[in-house]
């Protein structure tokens, strides 16, 4: 899980952080099998799990970056696309999809962005080439060079990929017919301090946009999960201790 906060102490081997310094990052949830998270007032993390937060970025906005922006960046790297390729991003109203659309557009890709109703104006501001309604059958789109399915919806997204293209999803989906030659990946986020620091700086400078759907007290974590499970959340819900 991801979070932000201030350093209150550190181990003997840590020499580059001081008490009171603001940091953001993730715990190694995929290594500890979810036994340790950030739903707490105090969290112990490895040094390589966090980076300093730029002075002009607040803690709430910074809390949206680590998991979502890293996942988006690493998903696009899996695609290995040349500039000018066409990329369909499903779930642009959410955290991963929103960052991915911006990063792909900035890399010179032609981005087709699937957005929720009423969210079209914000999505257009991310630099995408075209905004598609969420109600559209993705199987009727394309064929495109690559699809990032951040929802994911499975077969309809796979149908939009050109034969020989690439499909990246945030969770496992049914395999694509091997005869189509589609490269299929599930993006599993990897800790990467330099990459996270770069993304955090870009958000601080306004080069990458993020948004907070709501803030709730930590005691209302269950309500946050109910809202996410109900769908339609635009941006991230941040819990405050």
UniProtKB/TrEMBL annotation:
Coiled coil: none
Entry GO MF terms: oxidoreductase activity
Transmembrane segments: none
Domain Enoyl reductase (ER): 3-239
Highest taxon listed in the record's lineage: Bacteria
InterPro entries: ADH-like_N, ER, GroES-like_sf, NAD(P)-bd_dom_sf, YIM1/Zinc_Alcohol_DH_Fams
Protein name: NADPH:quinone reductase-like Zn-dependent oxidoreductase
